Amino acid sequence: RGCFQSEEEDEEEEEEEESLNPTQVKMSQIVMPCHSNHRQELSVGQLLKWMDSTACLSAERHAGSPCVTASMDDIHFEHTISVGQVVNIKAKVNRAFNTSMEVGIQVTCEDLFADRHWKVCHAYATFVTQRTSTGKKVILKPIVPQTQTEQVEYSVAAERRRVRMLHDDIIRDLLSLGSIQQGMDDSGLRYYLFIILHIFNSQVNTFGGQIMAWMVNVATIAASRLCQAHPTLRTIDMFTFRGPSQVGDRLLLRAIVNNAFKNSMEVGVRAEAYQEEGPNRHINSAFMNFEVLDKNGKPCTLPRIRPEPVVSHLKYIISRKQAEGPLSVPWDPRNQVYLSYNNVSALKMLAARNNWRLSSEKDKVRLYTLEEKSMLCVRVESEVDVPAHRAFGFLSELRNRTTWDTHYKECELIHRVDDEDFLYRVVTPSVPTKGEGMLQDFILLASKRKPCSSGDPYVIALRSVSLPTYPPTEQFNRGEVLCAGFTILESTNNTSLITYYNQASPEVLPYISTDIAGLSSSFYHTFCSCSQYLIKNRLMSDSDEKHQQNQTTSPERSSSESETERLSATLNSTQL
């Protein structure tokens, strides 16, 4: 669930490597024939074992104690690796939580004779520490990011952790519905597979990379039986270890093609462990997508299969590039976890950029710009005499923004998804380039997050989504927001640093172009209005708290006086 970096970001990362991360581990392996498949390419199973080994060493270097694999996030394999080429694997701990940590893994390939390097894949694995011999938990020390790249990964790691926890619930629901079950294709050939493996090694727990490699092998056989060819693995949905497998266990792996599309198929894999006596224990599940390539390396058309009563769950792929489709993504409750993750992580990564340019400043309200290819990003920030948690509460209710932001004429709450995600329809003033007097409207997903730990900001992220129940109309120009929102960071003496970001789309650019050119200072007036709104609400909240304390400490006060104060409080809240 990470983002693939651009060439500019790769260059920055190379420069930042001068400050070596103490948890970083590198491994280089030359691909031998024994590591390859029928196409003389490195088998994915072998690559997963190397990736897991490297990441485990990085985790143990930070923890100072043995660690085990808890999960490995979605992996997209951009290129294959041939026999004779060198695999370079780099792993380092992005963030440590209480007893678990996220390790980032980057895999590149090197052709020694052509002097070429290229990226193969990027992955995130979660490792947990094993208890000591006395049964005591090992508490991890925090990671201190040193470079911009490390700061981005550190910030987004908290959001990825949240997605993993919700991902478990999704997979659990799918498995309860029987996503991996027996089935037949149109020719009547069974394409599920049962394999029993005896595990004997020197470790207490079975090596996680080995289990993942076996799961890939089983899935490959199931895919081959459907297409009657040699498939190529393109993506893997998250591996999550739900329990350990130990010495003496028997391992049962089952794979089935859930669905076949025009050029790809999804295979579900389930791993179970059991002893000679006792029930089977579910230890891992994953979904893998395969293609069959022709002689020119192009995907072939696959045979269709008879639909099962339960269709496999396909989620929104958050790693797709922004230029591949419209800015507004379709809203689907089944994809809420991934859309919300993408919303928050995009804002965090925009905030972590360090090449912002100060365009103007007035009374400590600063306007920054950032140009990236064809995209212009804007950042406005200032300190406000309001505690961060209160500013977060006031700003996270988007409907109140019409009271201080002239760009918000109307704001309607469409749907309250949960405590952290909301859908709004916002109406903004007309834009000269879009027709005289024609208002714009936006359908926005608002995702709010509290800090995961001290030093993290509060986040309110906004992006456009599309809803079938709210299609574009002739009365409004439908606008789109790619990435916008607030970060609120606690400062000293109950003040907070409030920063607003906007990755300006064509619909937003006319509102801010005069500010950027220095021809107006509407950004200053809008931010001052926001500051006044926050301070006013803070004072009203303080007044309400004192009022409640006075009522508690003075119960003998007259009923008429109390009634007058209650009426005054009611009028104040009504005015707000």
Automatic annotation (TrEMBL):
Keyword Zinc: no
Functional pathway: Lipid metabolism; fatty acid metabolism
GO molecular function terms listed in the Swiss-Prot or TrEMBL record: carboxylic ester hydrolase activity; lipid binding; long-chain fatty acyl-CoA hydrolase activity
Reactions performed catalytically: butanoyl-CoA + H2O = butanoate + CoA + H(+)
Comp. bias (Acidic residues): 1-19
Key words, A-Z: Fatty acid metabolism, Hydrolase, Lipid metabolism, Repeat, Serine esterase
GO cellular component: cytosol
Segments forming domain HotDog ACOT-type: 21-133, 185-296
BP GO terms, sorted: acyl-CoA metabolic process; fatty acid metabolic process
Residue stretches of biased makeup (Low complexity): 567-576
Region (Disordered): 1-23, 542-576
Keyword Transit peptide set for record: no
Identification of the protein by name: Acyl-coenzyme A thioesterase 11-like
Organism in which the protein naturally occurs: Sphaeramia orbicularis (orbiculate cardinalfish)
